[in-house]
Amino acid sequence: MPGMNFKLDRRVFLKAFSLSALAALWPGRSEGTVQFQNDERFPSHYIQNRDVPGFFIRSANPFPGVNMNEWVLSVKGLVENPTVFQYEDLFGLKMIKQTSRLKCVECWSAKAEWEGFHISELIEKVKPKPEAKYVAFSSADSYYESYTIDELLRDRVLLVLRMNGSALSPNHGFPLRLIAPFKYGYKNIKYITGIEFTDDRKRNYWADFGPYSVDGTIQPGIDHPLDFNKKPLPINGGEVFHFFDKRPDIQRKG
Asked: Residue 64, preceding bond cis, omega within 30 degrees?
């Protein structure tokens, strides 16, 4: 597949094969997905317990969800003002709404309305040093991902708190996830706990444990959108738009 960095050692092959087999056997569910109804770790004002229709759910590791009594967002590294944010702090940032597709390397895509903030809001507060060129993300489920700062500063990249008008569900990355519409879904890290500004490029989870590249930019080819009965449709590469999608319109609040 174009844009993929394949590795053929036995460990990588077995892990990639097992995840593909699970996806085929149980489409729409992730291995280890857990529901959290009436769980004291998820106060009712934080989250509505539901899955979002029209999406397959994929996770690299079985994960019971984030304990909100312990969760914080740590922003550190090559910055003048390392900062720890509480969940409520993030809602004081300028909120942006956009509708965009999540495109999976399994060839499907699904559309949602996302609401969150631009990383420039964090940059203004922590003030990265001139030598900072990259950003490494860490998550509560031991996943990790990396980007250039320039990639994250693109207009339609959001750190997301809400999906389709409600708080993110546990399956979709509560309390915080990334949406970068021009990257494959594995680049859109969920359950974010840490953001680190660095001067060198870190690797990502699937470059270390699977067949996918660090870059992860969507390549030209065929998409099978779930909201259009998986009809095979051509795509040009980069962010996916189909003829039945409205063109992107960013609605800024505040």
From this structure: no
Pairing of the two strands 192-198 and 166-167: unpaired
The pair of three-digit structure tokens given for residue 53, joined into one six-digit string: 């229709």
**E-only strand ranges, 37-176:** 73-77, 83-85, 96-103, 108-117, 134-139, 144-148, 158-163, 166-167
Let me know: does 29 contact 19? Beta carbons within 8 Å: no
This prediction's pTM: 0.79
State the average pLDDT over residues 242-250.
Answer: 72
Alpha carbons 215 and 87: distance in angstroms, whole number: 29
pLDDT range class, residue 247, cuts 50, 70, 90: low
**Could you give phi then psi for residue 152, rounded to 5 degrees?**
-70, -25
The helix (run of H) or strand (run of E) holding residue 224 is strand 221-225
Residues 36-74: pLDDT tens digits?
Answer: 333 333 333 333 334 566 788 888 887 888 999 999 999
Burial 12-23 (b: 16+ CB within 10 A, else e): beeebeebeebb
Gap between the Cα atoms of 49 and 42, Å rounded: 9
- Residue pair 136/146 in contact (Cβ under 8 Å)? The answer is yes
